[in-house]
Amino acid sequence: MKISVIGTGYVGLVTGACFADVGNSVTCVDNNRKKVEDLNKGLLPIFEPRLEELVAANRREQRLTFTAELAQAVRESEICLIAVGTPTDEAGRADLSQVLAAGREIGRHLKSGLIVTIKSTVPVG
Asked: In 3D, which of 111, 109, 87, 108 has the Cα closest to residue 97?
């Protein structure tokens, strides 16, 4: 299956690596080009046990790639996961602006049959 994961933080990077490790073709997308460059060099922005091994192995097997080009990733995917940040404001409410922006951008490149899911932490409703 061809999967795109929008966001390469804790949720997106780990999710992408795990989906790739079970045999899917995964493209992780981030709008931070420096972060994408680092990921393509094997430099991870976070630590999770075994994550470095999973990313390296799946990059070697060409099941896991990183890009800043959301349009192409969405067009080539069967499933698109939104896994962007949802920081809380002073009142403890989730800031959904990144989720909504990702959804709008996906919508610009949406093709028939694409399944879009939200993996980001969002409130019910």
From this structure: 87
Q: Please provide the average confidence, as pLDDT, over all residues in the chain.
A: 95
DSSP string over the chain:
-EEEEE--SHHHHHHHHHHHHTT-EEEEE-S-HHHHHHHHTT--SS--TTHHHHHHHHHHTTSEEEES-HHHHHHT-SEEEE-----B-TTS-B--HHHHHHHHHHHHT--TT-EEEE-S-----
For the chain, report the end-to-end CA distance as a whole number of angstroms. Answer: 29
pLDDT at 112: 86
